[in-house]
Amino acid sequence: MISKSSHVVVVGSGLMGTGIAHAFASSGFVTTVVDTNSQALEKAIANIHAIFDGGVKLGKITEGDASAAKSRLHTETSVEEIPDNTCLLVETVSENLSVKQAVVKVAESVLSTDAIIATNTSALSVTEIASVLENPERVIGMHFFNPVHKMKLVELVLGLATDEDTIAITREWCKALNKTSILVNESPGLTTSRMSAMLGNEAMWMLQEGTASAEDIDTALRMGFNHPMGPLELGDLTGWDTRLSVLKYLHSTLGEKFRPCPLIIKMVAAGRYGRKTGHGVYKYDEDGQKVPGSGLKGSNL
């Protein structure tokens, strides 16, 4: 059973790892963030603290609760050094099968036999990730959405070996985070990544063809379909390098309708990944805020 003494480990201190660690710490769980890059760890903790500080300023959390949540955060530079009482490990490393397999393999060697191993993959096979383990039944996909502290959905992705106990306990973890979970049988792109990849790719085709400016394409989705963020803004937030990787995988498994737009390939080649590099479809200032009027138009591609 889940209790506030349950310890959570998040492997990977990138955008998603940061958000997931914040979610667990703010929900009362002692949380350790693991990354081999100590500078990345420092940045992740600073970003989590900034989310808490922002919540205090907006009156969404008290200063005392924010301070307590910050104190529940810890860091390590190796999975082998994680606490013995870890009940749940969530890996959020790069979308590379061999890298993820290496992480879960080490995790299995140090975790207790009843601890759950979750992967935040948005496109790779949970079955393949778990195939290197002696007990693949305790592996499940736990796909969070960005920004984690605002998005209420978690896709729970079932690998071939995932058992009922793992499913039940992971759903309890989602409830503890005040998030809604859905069950998804393993399939390329799951449900949301598949639809989001298609939407973002089509938006880039429209931008490349000069159908409308980036601002107007995003406004169309926000105002016409009540999306909280336009597909080009979302691509900048997620990172076009990540989006391209997902599209290539979906193209190879699901066919021509997922062929990446050439503009995405061009932007990635130029290092214009989005918000994390300060320039994607839009430009961003030092604080990560979008520069007004900076979006691409068909005439300036």
TrEMBL record:
Keyword field contains Coiled coil: no
Residue intervals of the 3-hydroxyacyl-CoA dehydrogenase C-terminal domain: 191-284
Keyword Transferase among UniProt keywords: no
Chain positions recorded as NAD(+) binding sites: G12, S13, G14, L15, M16, G17, D35, E95, K100, S122, N146, K276
Keywords from the named record: NAD, Oxidoreductase
Domain 3-hydroxyacyl-CoA dehydrogenase NAD binding, chain residue ranges per copy: 7-186
PANTHER family reported for this sequence: 3-HYDROXYACYL-COA DEHYDROGENASE FAMILY PROTEIN (PTHR48075), 3-HYDROXYBUTYRYL-COA DEHYDROGENASE (PTHR48075:SF5)
Annotated InterPro entries: 3-OHacyl-CoA_DH (IPR022694), 3-OHacyl-CoA_DH_NAD-bd (IPR006176), 3HC_DH_C (IPR006108), 6-PGluconate_DH-like_C_sf (IPR008927), 6PGD_dom2 (IPR013328), NAD(P)-bd_dom_sf (IPR036291)
Domain of life: Bacteria
GO function terms (MF aspect): NAD+ binding; oxidoreductase activity, acting on the CH-OH group of donors, NAD or NADP as acceptor
GO biological process terms on file: fatty acid metabolic process
Coiled-coil region: none
Organism of derivation: Pseudomaricurvus hydrocarbonicus
UniProt site (Important for catalytic activity): H143
Record protein name field: 3-hydroxyacyl-CoA dehydrogenase
Gene3D superfamilies reported in the protein's UniProt record: N-(1-d-carboxylethyl)-l-norvaline Dehydrogenase, domain 2, NAD(P)-binding Rossmann-like Domain
